[in-house]
Amino acid sequence: MTTFLEWENIGPKFATRGQILDLGLYLPNDIEYVHTVRTNRSLTEFKLYEVSMAQDLPEMNQNMFANLLCCKQLLNAIYVINNRAKGISEYIERNKMDNSQKSKISKLKEEKTELYGVKGEALKYLYGENRINLEGYHTIGTDRRKAYLFKRQPYSFHNWAKEFSVLTNNHLGHLDKYPKGEPKNKLYGIYEAKGLLNKYIDEYINNESV
Length: 210
Known about the structure:
Layout: E1 3-4, E2 14-15, H1 17-22, E3 25-26, E4 35-37, E5 46-50, E6 55-56, H2 62-66, H3 71-95, H4 102-128, E7 133-140, E8 145-152, E9 155-160, E10 171-175, H5 190-206
Parallel strand pairs: 1-4, 7-10
Antiparallel strand pairs: 2-5, 3-6, 4-5, 7-8, 8-9
Helix pairs in contact: 3-4, 3-5, 4-5
């Protein structure tokens, strides 16, 4: 069994289960992996399968399709929880001096921390799996904190660099504050989105990594 050290060395014949889904194909659960890949993108070693063993996606209703762990669904789920976390931040900022809001704000801070944690883990695995691109990093705000910019059209997300090892030295410039992206349709409610992302993270920790 070969362990590839860079995605560029793999070629089109092999892919992870997630990458195969992104191609609009489906890999039956009984198919065994044939190689692994470990790169400087991630400490995780991912399983690779022969793309030739994949099948066309079976006919399925919208609810079944929404639960697939393909990039379109995962990025929309990240968008949902990111939007919720930003809304929490704005609420806290507006009400931080209101003593009657202290208990609520404390709970919201816990929720925001959890949501950003799920977002960071999902981005880490998607990038490690070569399913999203890293454009570089911005420095943001008066404290010039470094935030990596991840993209896969039509989505883009910043994430604080401290949550990752050093990924790139490509500085994209300074931003006074986080930019507001174009509004997008939400495929999920907040609990559905969080559940889908946790499912993806758990699958790669428990099943699709070596």
